[in-house]
Write a structure and sequence with these properties.
Layout: E1 9-13, E2 19-24, E3 34-36, H1 39-42, H2 46-52, E4 57-62, E5 66-71, H3 78-94, H4 117-135, E6 139-147, E7 150-157, H5 165-180, E8 186-189
Parallel strand pairs: 7-8
Antiparallel strand pairs: 1-2, 2-5, 3-4, 4-5, 6-7
Length: about 190
């Protein structure tokens, strides 16, 4: 979608009752995701900083075409959706930078040419199959390591505190990786 088309923002429920996914018809992050787990991490980053100004917002994750907002478990979504949508619209229509300097996205792309074959296979499966599926629910999963048959991953956005995240990790991600890579024995969250 081009920036000349009218901006569309649509809130969508996620499997996590404390997280909503706000779909936008703009590219926000070219690849990967930007994850802000508290206002301190968002300091100097205009879009998440603005969203953290809204009472009861406790997490913001930005994906390619969506923003996932996590609320305090004790808060109700009804008074939050309108101010979040308004803040997103204001920021996106302003034409000002959303992230200040060039944002550092989290991806599963190998960071060094020395990554071994198993790690490379894990990252490829994550990037091609798992991360796109998880993004549909407003989350992301990033690779952190592989040692002694154990894959360590970081769940973000709607996945970070979702009641079904253990099921997603064990029944979905772990089973898929084990079926394709015999060296994988377990998948855990960091």
């Amino acid at each position: 979608m081009s920036a000349t088309e009218p901006l569309e923002i649509a809130a969508e429920m996620t499997p996590n009752p404390n997280t909503l996914k706000f779909n936008v018809n703009r590219v926000l992050a070219e690849t990967g995701s930007l994850n802000y787990t508290d206002p301190e991490r968002a300091k100097g980053v205009p879009l998440p900083e603005k969203l953290f100004e809204i009472e009861n917002v406790i997490g913001v994750m930005i994906g390619q075409g969506f923003v996932t907002v996590t609320k305090s478990p004790s808060a109700n979504w009804q008074p939050l959706v309108e101010p979040i949508t308004k803040s997103l619209r204001t920021m996106l229509e302003s034409g000002k930078p959303l992230f200040g300097a060039v944002p550092q996205t989290e991806t599963s792309t190998p960071s060094s040419a020395g990554a071994d074959d198993i790690e490379t296979k894990i990252r490829q499966i994550l990037d091609r199959e798992i991360r796109p599926a998880v993004a549909m629910d407003g989350g992301d999963i990033t690779f952190h390591g592989f040692k002694d048959g154990v894959v360590t991953l970081h769940l973000q956005g709607s996945c970070s505190s979702c009641p079904s995240s253990v099921m997603t990790l064990k029944m979905g991600v772990e089973n898929r990786l084990k079926s394709l890579i015999p060296e994988v024995k377990e998948v855990i969250q960091v």
